[in-house]
Amino acid sequence: MIIQSKNVWINESLQPAQIEIIDDKITGIYPYDEKVVDIDYQDKWILPGFIDIHCHGYSGTNSNKPTLRGMKKWAKHLPKEGVTAFLATTSTQSVNKNEKAMVTYSSIINRIEEGAEILGINMEGNFISKECKGAQNKRYIVDPDSEVLEKYQILSGNNIVSVTYAAEKDLDFSFVKKCNELGIVASIGHSACSFDQAKEALENGASAITHTGNGMKPFHHRKPGLFGAAVNLDGFYAEVIGDGVHVDFQTAHLIGKMKGKDKLILVTDSAVQKDDRKFNFLNKNGAYRFPSGTLFGSALYVNEGVNNLHKKANLDLVIAINSATINPARYCKCDDRKGTIEVNKDGDIVVCDENIKVYEVYCRGVKQDL
């Protein structure tokens, strides 16, 4: 199959091109109109498939309690957002429930053949700070424990890709060092750590900040804290929830400008989704809250987030697009096959307009039903 457009995202710019896809891979990129095409998308934009590294569930499917049926339903939904790959993100729960979830993931991840690809697991709990717990369950929060993490990784079949932890609780850096040993991204979040503690964690192997601006102490001009570390230290990837609620768009602009095109990662932190009608009474201005007002997740779609970062946070297009494509691919260490439109990479394609409204999506070469 050959598709083409006058606006294909190649080498961080929109340019006329043809894309050849055979089976699940991109097998050729040619000049516009060179070969006979199967579909001409004309002026529509063709972008790499989006990757969401931080999302919690969909329409009754809760990543803390995965089932094969639920995960299949979730994976089939995500292309509507332009998402072709994702990390199922767990939150704080009991050890027994974590262990059960990890065992389940080990048996079902490779059985999800349709829709978005599950790249693995992102553990947002339990190794966090009670002081900055946000909507996390205080009862089961524990200090970072490298032995427990290793057990979870074994039970998951080595599918844990990322874990959030409170850097101030990892005094000897044994947890972050274990993360590196196990090939897990150590992301600081739900943490009351200082700037210096975050910097020391970075020097010992931490490499990301979970939903920057949320789950941390507010920035202060004399106490920059974790937010200051996120934007100032080049070694950190910085997640940002691009809904304008979790962080104001002006704050998102600051984070994006400081991190640039290579270190910003758009996430949804989605809890329940737009068609989950039973939760609508908690959905205010595009985010979900407990009756107390505490945020517990967004109702954001990834394609909306890309458009928001560009149009509402006024970030350069390359920053907005990279934040949902190549940057999360590098974070997940799958940039050898995802994140850009290149020969030998997966046929993960989003066809959209200039407002990132999704028209077609290909997951590993297969056109999806949207």
Key terms for this structure?
370 residues, alpha/beta, Urease, subunit C, domain 1, TIM Barrel, 2 domains, eight-stranded mixed beta sheet, eight-stranded parallel beta sheet
Describe the structure.
The chain has 370 residues and is α/β, with parallel strands linked by helices. It folds into two domains: 2-45 and 347-367, Urease, subunit C, domain 1 (Roll); 48-331, Alpha-Beta Barrel (TIM Barrel), CATH 3.20.20.140. The chain is built from ten helices and 21 strands. Strands 1, 2, 3, 4, 5, 19, 20 and 21 form an eight-stranded mixed β-sheet that branches. An eight-stranded parallel β-sheet has the order 6-9-10-11-12-13-14-15. Strand 7 (57-58) and strand 8 (61-62) form a beta hairpin. Helix 3 (146-155) packs parallel to helix 4 and helix 5 (195-203) packs across helix 6. The longest helix has 15 residues, at 249-263. It is globular, with a radius of gyration of 20 Å. The relative contact order is 0.16.
In short:
By secondary structure, this protein is an alpha/beta fold. The protein has 10 helices and 21 strands. α3 runs parallel beside α4 (174-182) and α5 (195-203) packs across α6 (225-232).
What is the rounded Rg? 20 Å
- The CATH architecture term of the largest domain is Alpha-Beta Barrel
Helix content: 25-40%
User: Biggest sheet, open or closed, and with what strands and sense?
Assistant: 8 strands, mixed
Question: Taking all residues together, what is the mean pLDDT?
Answer: 94
Name of the CATH homologous superfamily of the largest domain: Metal-dependent hydrolases
CATH-defined fold name of the largest domain: TIM Barrel
Domains, number: 2
Ends: how far apart?
20 Å
- The count of β-strands is 21
| Helix vs. strand class | alpha/beta
Low-confidence stretches: none
State the oligomer.
single chain
